[in-house]
Write a structure and sequence with these properties.
With 454 residues, this protein is mainly α. It has a single domain, classed as MFS general substrate transporter like domains (Growth Hormone, Chain: A), CATH 1.20.1250. The protein is 76% helix and 3% strand. It has 18 helices and 2 strands. It has a two-stranded antiparallel ribbon with strand order 1-2. Helix 1 packs antiparallel against helix 5 and helix 2 runs parallel beside helix 5. The protein is globular and about 60 Å long. The N and C termini lie close together (5 Å).
Length: 454
């Protein structure tokens, strides 16, 4: 059975369907594991080294695949069954995480307790290298898995349901990733340093099983048979399509700079939390509650807000709001304030994602969706390792000029400054008129689109 999309005048169904709910369940489970990892990996990194550049390098390794592997992953996504790619990558991520779990278990008695990591002197090179290598490989698998997940959704739900489906996905992922996962991760850390990694590995295996239960095959749809061309030719087609699009090109670049700005402060946030905010793993996870609440709100209101005020106005609010919240975190380091700011940032991030991901899924031709989506994410996510490296270097350099407290705060001020510049640029590039014009230009002759199985 092959799943494809066809144009018809059939109205959108009221239910998202069983296939969506299995994809949804897999996403929630894997994001629960990611939320556990958000606590476990930074705390493990800070337990083996206190060097801000080495801590940031772990995040660089995690995001580097988005710079070097995203484009090839797009061609692969358009060549293979996307469901099988997701299953294979989740199994691989589970196996890699299991390897980290056993490596940490072997060092269990030599690692400091969760509340003692700031007493670490020197670097445990062996374990650090294991974490660095595993993080890089996990990032490679994540690139292909996530690109496949975004390109499979238009074949699972009706076109008119994309914003609703994306909103539900982003909201639930946010809850699992920031509300349930981090507190569970901190609890598991207290039990044993290796425990969260074992649970994280299990989440990937469960997610793989849920995706495998989705019926049908999911390959890129072509209006007519095409011959297999060279990897380079297919990749070039995706690059040219995006670079020639007057809206998606600046949108991808702006998002890339936004993500780079987030990584500037995010790369050393665990050190900021420990040394400036003075909190341990429990409160570190608790401030994520703000993000979870923001995620629920963002996923709930995103579609309504875009209709009420227009997508362009909402994107402008995201850019301005991100600048303000980052500056507030740098100035006011009391954890309840940071929790509220995280909530606002997550709400804004989900608002951006629901609007822009649904737009891409609507206007990119189905036969090019995997490749164009990967080129877009090359710009959008490929800037993350660069931002993380800048964050680590910023702390190291500014520490030579002022005390370490203000050096760690400086990353948030740099984050805010970048977003402020992007607000000025984005206000003219990403208008509601431009978004609606792009939708209209890509609209098929028929009035609706519906998935079908045959």
């Amino acid at each position: 059975m092959t799943v494809s999309r066809r144009h018809s005048a059939v109205p959108a169904p009221t239910r998202l369907g069983a296939r969506f709910h299995r994809l949804f369940g897999a996403s929630v489970v894997s994001n629960l594991g990611d939320g556990i990892g958000q606590i476990a990996y930074p705390w493990l990194a800070s337990a083996v080294t206190r060097d801000p550049i080495l801590v940031a390098l772990v995040l660089v390794a995690q995001r580097l695949p988005w710079l070097v592997f995203t484009l090839p992953a797009g061609v692969i996504t358009d060549r293979v069954d996307r469901k099988r790619a997701m299953v294979a990558m989740d199994v691989l991520r589970g196996a890699l995480t299991l390897g980290v779990a056993f490596a940490v278990l072997g060092e269990q008695g030599k690692l400091p307790g969760p509340d003692e990591v700031d007493q670490v002197v020197g670097t445990r090179i062996g374990l650090y290298l294991v974490v660095l290598a595993a993080t890089l490989l996990l990032g490679m698998a994540e690139v292909l898995r996530d690109n496949s997940a975004q390109t499979i959704l238009p074949d699972i739900v009706h076109a008119d349901q994309l914003e609703r489906a994306n909103g539900r996905m982003w909201s639930a992922e946010g809850v699992a990733n920031t509300f349930v996962g981090p507190p569970l991760g901190s609890l598991l850390l207290v039990i044993a340093f290796a425990a969260p990694f074992f649970v994280d590995a299990a989440s990937f295996f469960v997610a793989a099983a849920l995706v495998a239960l989705i019926p049908g095959t999911y390959r890129a749809r072509h209006d007519e048979p095409v011959e297999r061309r060279s990897f380079r030719t297919e990749l070039g087609e995706g690059v040219r399509w995006l670079m020639g699009h007057s809206l998606l090109r600046p949108m991808a670049i702006i998002l890339g700079l936004m993500n780079a700005a987030a990584m500037v402060s995010g790369a050393t946030f665990v050190l900021f939390a420990q040394e400036v905010m003075g909190i341990g793993p429990f409160l570190f996870s608790i401030i994520g509650f703000g993000g979870a609440i923001g995620g629920i709100a963002g996923g709930t209101i995103a579609s309504w807000a875009a209709r009420r005020w227009g997508g362009g106005a909402c994107l402008a609010v995201v850019l301005a709001g991100s600048a303000v919240t980052s500056a507030v975190i740098g100035i006011w380091v009391w954890w309840p304030v940071v929790m509220v700011m995280f909530g606002l940032q997550t709400l804004l991030g989900i608002l951006w994602n629901v609007i822009t991901v649904s737009l891409r899924q609507t206007i990119i031709p189905p036969r090019l969706l995997g490749r164009v989506n990967s080129v877009y994410r090359f710009f959008a996510w490929g800037m993350m390792p660069i931002g993380a490296a800048i964050g680590g270097v910023t702390v190291a350099v500014v520490s030579a000029l002022v005390d370490r407290d203000w050096a760690l705060r400086a990353t948030w001020f740099l984050n805010a400054a970048i977003h402020l510049v992007l607000f000025v640029v984005g206000r003219t590039k990403l208008t509601t008129a431009h978004l609606e014009a792009a939708r209209a230009a890509a609209a098929p002759p028929s009035s609706a689109t519906t998935p079908s199985a045959s």
